[in-house]
Amino acid sequence: MRLWIYIVRRxxxxxxxxxxxxxxxxxxxxxxxxxxxxxxxLGTNPKVPYTPQVPCSKLGINQPGECRNxxxxxxxxxxxxxxxxxxxxxxxxxxxxxxxxxYVGNGSGLSGQIPIARGQPVITVLGWFLPYxxxxxxxxxxxxxxxxxxxxxxxxxxxxxxxxxxxxxxxFSGFALPPFLLGSFVLFAVVLLVGGHSGISPTCxxxxxxxxxxxxWPQIQCFQGGLYPVWLKSGQIxxxxxxxxxxxxxxxxxxxxxxxxxxxxxxxxxxxxxxIAVLLRFVRNSMLEVLNLDFVRTARAKGVPERxxxxxxxxxxxxxxxxxxxxxxxxxxxxxxxxxxTVFGLNGVGRLFAYAVTLTPVxxxxxxxxxxxxxxxxxxxxxxxDVLYAVxxxxxxxx
Amino acid sequence: xxxxxxxxxxxxxxxxxxxRTWYFFRRNxxxxxxxxxxxxxxxxxxxxxxxxxxxxxxQEYTSSNGSPPGSVTSPFPVICTYQSGELPPAxxxxxxxxxxxxxxxxxxxLKTGTLGPLPFGSLTLTPSGTQLFxxxxxxxxxxxxxxxxxxGIVGTGAIIGVVLGVVSGYFGGVVDEAIMRLTDIFLSIPxxxxxxxxxxxxxxxxxxxxxxVAIIVSAFIxxxxxxxxxxxxxxxxxxxxxxxVEAARxxxxxxxxxxxxxxxxxxxxxxxxxxxxxxxxxxxAIAAIVFIGFHVFPVNTFPEWGTMTALSVSSTVLQTxxxxxQTSAATCVIPWWQFFFPGAALFMFAISVNFFADGLRDALDxxxxx
Lengths: 399, 370
Hints:
The complex is a heterodimer. Chain A is mostly helical. In chain A, about 70% of the residues lie in helices and about 0% in strands. The longest helix of chain A has about 40 residues. Chain B is mainly α. In chain B, the strands form two sheets. Chain B has a two-stranded antiparallel sheet. The longest helix of chain B has about 35 residues. Chain B is globular, with a radius of gyration of 26 Å. Chain B starts with a helix and ends with a helix. At the A-B interface, α1, α7, α8, α12 and α14 of A face α6, α7, α12, α13 and α14 of B.
């Protein structure tokens, strides 16, 4: 089979997954009260709550008693809530697929934390927060792969020897530690170690070392005039790429770019430490299998040095299997971002989700929007991995 | 004739296989350590219902020990004074630095070598420290809940997964395609987020604890079965083509019998491995959910390891201590026991389960056995 046919086939498999995920979110949305569905989809109405009847004075009608609430009934008609569930589903799907994911609530909670998000479309706000999460994910993934592949190979070659046991104990302990516990502990330890101002952020008044490691960007006092640069304050609206490090560099603020990267080191290490065990196990097992195969024995028999056998013959072949698992690993650690970003105060999608879900009332527009976004990230990662695998291993395309 | 007689008396070959698995398992040090820790936890969990704690509330506990019940409420007073470096005169004598949220350190009477009323210290439930909680009692009581919830979720998930996986793998066709697409969907949503959404949709306004527990357990089951379905299906696809299945079919066995007697027994071992891996992650996941802000279980009446760990390092607690440390060295007392004991319980459980599962996998899979 040609490669492009494989890619098209693989792309077609994505369609039912996306539709299925949106159906699940639809089922969850449908079990919400009507007023909350309207609020999530259409945004909070500052004056009139979404109830069938409101006091007439609120509508500006000079008349005592309750009146029919036009906002409520218009909303029902817009979302198709006055029609049969399949129609509701179709309208929901159409909205979701065209990026109409609802609006951020006007309530005190989320808008209080992130004032610029007030009343914005969910997809716009997610767009502001997504690049940071992607940067962090890429950083963490790079660490995970750089550590677990060599360590897994080593672990398999020296099976059940001290080096194998040690690497497994260390990696498993990362898996068994709750990430928020490790994260808090690391943050705590680093702050106490540094003591005063660590010198990472530019010197600015009254910045404690805690804020040198907490948050995605330096404290507001560190910027000239005590204000964020315009492109940062307005949610990177004027930013060319959206990626904070790249944008800072483009705007010539090297310190900010560097600072953002340095602030990512601790969270990325914590995420990586928690996930290395998952990948390491697969690398070790696939390496153990490959080491038992005939071609490895042949290589050894014809006198290829052991180092070359491990590196060239076995290592290359076990890597093929490992690549497929990277996608799965990605799915397992991206869910943990909500926790890690909360611990370190990073402005990513995970923290947005954690904010929105703990508000009372819950900001369901953001919650469902970020879930769909996370799913899209996972699906895309798996797609890239599969295509990469097909490019590397022609047998996959045949099957 | 004698041969058939001895043939008949031969034990079930499955016992043989188990003995062989045990032989390989035993040689794996890490796996044996994991098994030992697991057995310890199970014993603690079995003992938990009989644990004679007069309630897990710190207040009740101290009052039963003779000190006035009001003495541990905030603002935390020094119950008795002693010079630093000296041994506490009584086991229930605590000292709290001024200007700190009230916390009670672990008490061990070094003179008599006995544990005090709070051997693991206290857990601060509110940032102001008005509510304290006996960590030791909570851990013992909580072992029961943590273990049974984890095993319940994984067990139910595995049963659903095995049934769907067998159906999908054995019958194939449209059913297979449908079930596999369904697992695709569930595996694409980050599981933790889906559980949190379930809670936010269904459990926010639910006051009954039992109902909340039921909701969180079912949410976990919903995200947990697809992994097992995938694993079982893969195994069934291999088993289905084996000679003995063909022989059974040729001798006229029904589909139900083949599935029950041949397919399921020969394809569930990887599920056991995956199950034992997953058992350890459930308290971790619950901890993460509580940390994000869903107080699913009220710790006072329903101690659970994940909840205890999450509360011990909630961001308000952490920031209070960091600020206390940055103000002056005198107020910088890190209540390490708050994080350490609940965290250690979670950690030991998860890691022992992991070692156990890894050992099991190595022992069961001849390719990894070497």
